[in-house]
């Protein structure tokens, strides 16, 4: 099935509502570089490149799935009980398979986790592939928003929906949670809704009955969670090598997979490390160490703990068979929100 925002589609967007809204994922490349070259060749051929955002994705997907080097994926490492296709399969064929199994949630989740991971780690061809395989849902979401009263260019809604999807694909959807594809679709729809809301005649405000009378206290413009993270490093609560990964994942909400690959650790190991940081920061915020003045005794204790962590990490790295200490149950995953509130 080919889905594109052609001129005919834009003239009658309601026809897109008949397109299935749950379609799946992408096949692994024979070579991702060759696939990217195919897209470039398609763009440089005689015909003009489409102006619609969705049509551009569709054209790139056509180049990716065309001979002689179609992008493929091998899902044989997934649980055979899921019933996903075995062996390398073309993206277009997999899209058809996913359309036929659109209510098979375990299989959809497993395939989309694979696709999201490849889009984050294996290059732009996989980003195009994932986006193209989600086009039916994206087209339908944009069509519904336009039909709901959008007065501008439909392509603007297309672009915003596409941007929301790509942002979630790159960073914000957590593959460890259930239904990652549903998360991608929700992000795309929210982005489109935010654009449409800008055209509304009514601006939503706080409930004035709940606002106390009198002057308002302005937000402090100088506070920022990054400053507390830096202070946590200085106090030894956070190891220097964990500072940027913590900022990227917890405050910046970036995807964890590329960060783990850059650090040459597994995703599970990095999750465990960051969860321990959350616990230490939560305790420090509750004790007032981060937001107040730490006593010399507290600073010395934190320094000893930091030295112990570093020695343990070094020992584990030197002896892969060594079993690290068990990880305590997570105290809270709200440490980033507490950091923001402390500012």
Topology, pairings included?
Elements: H1 7-11, H2 32-44, H3 53-64, E1 72-74, E2 88-90, H4 91-100, H5 105-121, H6 124-133, H7 135-147, H8 154-172, H9 180-197, H10 225-235, H11 240-251, H12 256-263, H13 267-287, H14 296-318, H15 335-342
Antiparallel strand pairs: 1-2
Region (Disordered): 1-31, 311-343
Biased composition (Basic and acidic residues): 9-20
- The residue fraction in helices comes out at 55-70%
DSSP helix count?
Answer: 15
Radius of gyration: 24 Å
Low-confidence stretches: 1-32, 218-222, 324-332
Overall tally of domains:
2
- Classification by helices and strands: mainly alpha
- In round numbers, the mean pLDDT is 76
**Oligomeric state:** single chain
Taking the sheet with the most strands, its summary is: 2 strands, antiparallel
Percentage of β-strand residues: under 5%
Order of helices and strands: HHHEEHHHHHHHHHHHH
Strand order across the biggest sheet? Answer: 1-2
């Amino acid at each position: 099935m080919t889905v594109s925002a052609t001129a005919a589609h834009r003239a009658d967007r309601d026809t897109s509502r008949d397109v299935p809204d749950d379609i799946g994922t992408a096949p692994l490349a024979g070579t991702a570089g060759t696939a990217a070259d195919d897209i470039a060749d398609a763009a440089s051929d005689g015909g003009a490149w489409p102006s619609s955002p969705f049509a551009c994705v569709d054209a790139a997907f056509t180049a990716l799935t065309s001979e002689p080097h179609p992008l493929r994926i091998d899902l044989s490492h997934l649980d055979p009980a899921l019933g996903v296709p075995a062996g390398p399969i073309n993206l277009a064929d997999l899209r058809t398979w996913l359309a036929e199994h659109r209510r098979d949630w375990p299989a959809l989740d497993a395939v989309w986790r694979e696709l999201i991971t490849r889009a984050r780690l294996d290059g732009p061809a996989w980003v195009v592939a994932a986006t193209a395989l989600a086009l039916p849902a994206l087209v339908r979401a944009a069509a519904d928003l336009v039909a709901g009263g959008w007065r501008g260019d439909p392509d603007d809604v297309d672009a915003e929906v596409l941007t929301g999807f790509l942002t979630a694909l790159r960073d914000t959807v957590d593959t460890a949670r259930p239904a990652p594809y549903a998360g991608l679709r929700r992000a795309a729809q929210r982005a489109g809704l935010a654009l449409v809301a800008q055209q509304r005649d009514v601006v939503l405000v706080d409930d004035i009955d709940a606002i106390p009378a009198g002057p308002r206290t302005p937000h402090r413009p100088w506070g920022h969670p990054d400053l507390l993270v830096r202070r946590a490093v200085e106090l030894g609560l956070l190891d220097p090598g964990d500072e940027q990964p913590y900022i990227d994942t917890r405050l910046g909400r970036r995807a964890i997979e590329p960060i783990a690959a850059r650090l040459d650790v597994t995703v599970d190991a990095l999750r465990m490390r960051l969860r321990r940081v959350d616990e230490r920061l939560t305790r420090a915020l509750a004790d007032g160490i981060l937001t107040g003045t730490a006593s010399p005794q507290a600073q010395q204790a934190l320094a000893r703990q930091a030295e112990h962590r570093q020695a343990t990490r070094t020992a584990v790295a030197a002896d892969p068979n060594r079993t690290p200490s068990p990880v305590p149950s997570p105290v809270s995953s709200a440490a980033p929100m507490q950091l923001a509130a402390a500012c």
